[in-house]
Design brief:
Alpha-Beta Plaits, six-stranded antiparallel beta sheet, two-stranded antiparallel ribbon, 5 helices, globular
Length: 162
């Protein structure tokens, strides 16, 4: 079964939505490997700070079905998708990787490009999967994190029992 990594974020009632999402993911997809929770400023818009983390699991479900389940969990937590991609949100669940797959799967681009763009994605991913390799870049997540330009992208661990 492929290893799957998902980023989780919230900046509206953060604690409740993060903990609820983890409960839902465990119920729907099984045992999780979970990074620490990090706080980061909103990127691309003015808004409350986010809580972010990465969770992983193994699954024989395909990426499209996993994506559907992630959207259903977001909706159950009050997420309303709009054209404005940069806005406060109750919950944001993004499929980052599905094994070593690379390409487009019914609108999902894998691996997700945010891995290489944002500290709040790469940092937690490097924490839980330091030796895994990016499916396209080829470097490990630990190697990518070591050379990542963190200027203007501060992330801070927060105490939140997950």
């Amino acid at each position: 079964m492929p290893q799957v990594w998902v980023s989780i974020g919230s900046n509206v009632d953060r604690r409740r939505h993060i903990l609820g999402a983890l409960d839902d993911l465990r119920r729907d997809l099984g045992a999780l490997t979970v990074s620490r929770v990090y706080e980061s400023e909103a990127v691309g818009f003015e808004g409350p700070a986010f809580y972010n983390l990465v969770a992983g699991f193994r699954s024989d479900l395909g990426p499209v079905e996993i994506g559907r389940r992630l959207r259903a969990i977001e909706a159950a937590h009050g997420r309303r998708r709009t054209d404005n991609r940069f806005a406060p949100r109750t919950l944001d669940l993004d499929l980052l990787t599905y094994g070593n797959q690379a390409g487009r799967f019914a609108g999902l681009e894998l691996p997700r490009d945010e891995i290489l763009k944002y500290a709040f994605v790469l940092g937690p991913l490097a924490e839980v999967a330091p030796g895994e390799r990016h499916p396209v870049d080829g470097r490990t997540y630990a190697e990518l994190w070591k050379v990542f330009d963190r200027a203007g992208q501060a992330i801070h661990p927060v105490e939140l029992a997950v």
